[in-house]
Design a protein that fits this description.
six-stranded parallel β-sheet, 10 helices, 321 residues, seven-stranded mixed β-sheet, alpha/beta, globular, 27% strand
């Protein structure tokens, strides 16, 4: 099968499309024929080996596995001996390691039936960004109806899901984005849109019960200024710096939270069959719709990641396999 691989850290040019052996599913795994995948910031961070602390897991001098991709939508090819609920021909979506390939073996708990109303490309845009938005808002921050929510980075992959999910919970949502994306963010349900080229949300005087920072480009002191006295800040951005990245955000958040009533948290999503089903239900109910910026072929993954790395993608960048 064809699969994306990289043997050294560096720019998108290190990415190769190679012929590799098709994986055999373990007893609790499902072999999926991938129809579409998508790329995430995780991919270009892994490709570059940044922050450097991540190389303790990725491989210190060179990538130990060299696979990219975490989202997929496809068709079940075969299943392991202990798998229940899936059979050959089922259409599924979910998360795995190395999904930028023609086939991938996926733990059955990482999958759910594909939402029937959308195609494979749209379904592949959902898992990582959708799970991050849902879990950070609902579980980490305790989102409730009537909350005033601000999403910093509202036009991005996670941001477009966060705006719609918060709105579906009955929140009053403000989205922060650049000038070209104002109408997009308004169209997906934002009650108010702040164009950061014209206004600074941290200095408008408005206070929010919940802030989801999907960018990581503002000091915590600025974010606190826009947060209600007992509000919650959830940070999912990668953080600045090549050495420890989000670990500095985690440390600062933990330190601040000890001395003030505001909660400041850093969040990383988890694989979840049940939450994939919840996202599918929101899609089928017409409350959430994946926003897709561009679609690339598998042979164009390097270009796709280069585009994503620029930081101006509107919604998700999808790979058609």
């Amino acid at each position: 099968m064809r699969a994306v691989r990289y043997e050294r850290y560096g720019p998108p040019e290190v990415i190769q499309l190679r012929q590799v052996e098709t994986p055999a599913p373990a007893d609790d795994e499902v072999l999926v024929k991938v129809q579409a995948a998508s790329v995430n910031p995780l991919d270009w961070h892994s490709m570059r080996g940044l922050p450097y602390v991540a190389r303790l897991q990725l491989g210190v001098r060179k990538p130990s596995r060299g696979m990219l991709g975490a989202d997929l939508a496809g068709i079940v090819e075969t299943v392991g001996g202990s798998v229940t609920g899936y059979r050959m021909g089922d259409e599924v979506f979910g998360t795995a390691v190395g999904t930028l390939a023609e086939y991938v073996a996926v733990p059955q708990g990482n999958l759910a039936p594909k939402p029937p109303s959308i195609g494979f490309g749209a379904a592949a845009a959902v898992p990582v960004a959708g799970l991050t938005a849902l879990q950070s808002l609902r579980d980490k921050a305790g989102l409730e109806s009537g909350h005033r929510v601000l999403v910093n980075g509202a036009a991005g992959g996670v941001g477009t899901f966060a705006v719609q999910i918060a709105r579906s919970f009955g929140a009053e949502v403000t989205g922060v984005c650049s000038t070209p994306n104002v109408e997009l963010v308004r169209s997906i349900g934002a009650y108010e849109v702040v164009d950061y080229n014209r206004d600074d949300f941290a200095r408008t005087g408005h206070r929010y019960d919940l802030i989801l920072d999907a960018v990581g480009n503002r000091p915590i002191s600025d974010l606190r200024r826009a947060l209600a006295p007992s509000g919650t800040l959830v940070m999912i951005g990668p953080g600045a710096g090549k050495w420890i990245g989000p670990m500095m955000l985690m440390l600062k958040a933990a330190t601040w939270s000890r001395f003030v009533d505001q909660r400041m948290l850093w969040f990383l999503s988890q694989h979840s069959h049940d939450d994939l089903v919840a996202l599918s239900d929101l899609i089928e109910a017409g409350k959430v719709s994946p926003v897709i910026d561009r679609t690339y072929r598998l042979a164009e993954v390097a270009e796709a990641i280069a585009y994503l790395e620029e930081g101006h993608a509107r919604g998700k960048v999808v790979i058609s396999v």
